[in-house]
Amino acid sequence: MEPEESYRRIFDLLKKHHEWFIDAIPLIASENVTSPAVREALVSDFGHRYAE
To answer: Where are the domains of the chain?
Structure first.
């Protein structure tokens, strides 16, 4: 399987998961579902910072 095909398959599966999750109610207390604002911040430079 070519890398491009693998990436496309992974992203297709992620898209399906996200579509499913929109209509789901997560009942596992340990799950941490972040807001869109938090997800946006994590893909920025702030996602690689830490505090001591």
So the answer is: 3-48
Of 3, 33, 38, residue with least CA distance to 18: 33
Give every CB contact of residue 41 below 8 A, 6+ residues apart in sequence: 47
Query: What's the pTM value of the predicted model, to 2 decimals?
Result: 0.48
Is there a contact between 26 and 33 (Cβ–Cβ < 8 Å)? Answer: yes
Per DSSP, the chain holds a count of helices (H) and strands (E) of 2, 0
Q: How confident is the model over 6-47, as pLDDT tens digits?
A: 999 999 999 998 898 888 887 777 777 788 888 888 787 776
